[in-house]
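Sample 1 of the test manifest.
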Amino acid sequence: MFGYFYNESMRKMTIAFGQLFNNIQIKRTDSSNNVVQSIRVPLAYAPKEKFLVRLDQKPNLDEREFAITLPRMGFEITGISYDSSRKLTKTQKFRTVQSGDDGKVMNYNYTPVPYNIDYSLYIFTATAESGLQIVEQILPYFQPDYTVTINQVPELNIKRDVPIVLNTVNYEDSYSGDFTTRRAVIYTLNFTAKTYLYGPAQTQKVIKETQADLYTDTNTTSAREERITVVPNPTSADADDDFGFTTTITFFEDGKSYNVTTDEDV
Amino acid sequence: MAVNHFFQNGNGIGNTNEQRLHEDLIIEGLKIYGHDVYYLPRTLVNQDLILGEDTLSKFDDSYLIEMYVETSDGFSGERELINKFGLEIREDTTFVLSKRRWNNAVDSNHTMIKEGRPNEGDIIYYPLMNSFFEISFVEDQEPFFQLGNLPVYKLRARRWEYSSERLNTGVTDIDSAEDQYTLDQLAHQVTLEAESGSLLLENDSASGDSNFFLLETYAIQTQSPYADNLDLDNEAGFNTADTADDILDFTERNPFGEVDFG
């Protein structure tokens, strides 16, 4: 029943989400308050193939100097849910004109379905100070949402503003316990991206002439009396040009009717 | 009630000579069965007295000393595991070393944060495994007063969670680990020939700090294989001047009409 299509909507949303946190910096100062270290915090999508993680992060088995290098941040999709509050009528279309093999064509897509995608952003630092620096670069932007414009369907030139809402901030500092228990400073920030998912794009040819026949009776087997024809002005105009319309109204007394098969009046 | 005078000579079990012999035997045993490791005392650079930490510790000295790895069957701990922060190697072990040897090799040559004992937070570099361990606890009463003596430390240690601390010990194997894993961008900036300064750009508008040139050799994914920062830039179309393939659109739009302001 369903044909193949893939707009990469959630993939793009995930990349866009990651991009928000892609250039977080930590600065470290000496006792004279001079900046002596500047660290761009590594960021990655957390769920990955285990064998690739092992091969990428420990390609050489002799290089196991450290347990982990810090700081680092990870993020992942934690939920996908339908948002009925943003639902619009199904039949509305997004249209755009593009050049195809047979000249210009009209691409269209029906109203997308609203979905909330939940993300979690994890922050792991060696010190509380580093964690505070990171979260302070994030939290002020979310009041409680930060809106990004995403190029969701480039084929249809559809760009949507997607609010990303910061729901909760959880903080864990496992400093208590015996001395051999490791201390870990971990923040977990939970977000919801209010995005839309699009169905398959459809294509239709550009309509360059419309014709409406009017009858004096509801019995359409009788002869048409009047014809209203609308064409673009100029007639060479394409769908993405700036054009007007020429409306021609013609009256008939010849007793003929329009044959849609032969495109003639008989 | 006093101890038995006939067995303990009124001085408790173990006189000084016996204790010395006992300690010598332990040192000899550690030299036979132990491994050479480097002891790296921590130097605090900018201690935060409120948060109780030092984000900028450095390790400028190293001292070769023999230690015995007590967990001879391998490491304890959760070992290699994968979580939301990628690959971690949680390995714990215990190093045994002679107190007298540590005093001679380390304490008499270095000003420790707290004198007279190994400090929690100091680092042990184990050349055989090319691994760094952070001392999490110094156990000084095990074995418990044999011959009335406490001749060894047991250093509970776990594989180090490295956070770009400076390693300038003069030992190539140790210092090269910093070059390989530090995330500090300033370590990769273009410096002048005299090494008395660096090339700076105009102040960053947001932070007010100076921007700087970075060497092409620096890439965050080289320093941290975990990082996907550049891949995300690439996928989002940020690595090209062309904006047609960008996922995020920064074109300012006019919400009240059809005219866009680019």
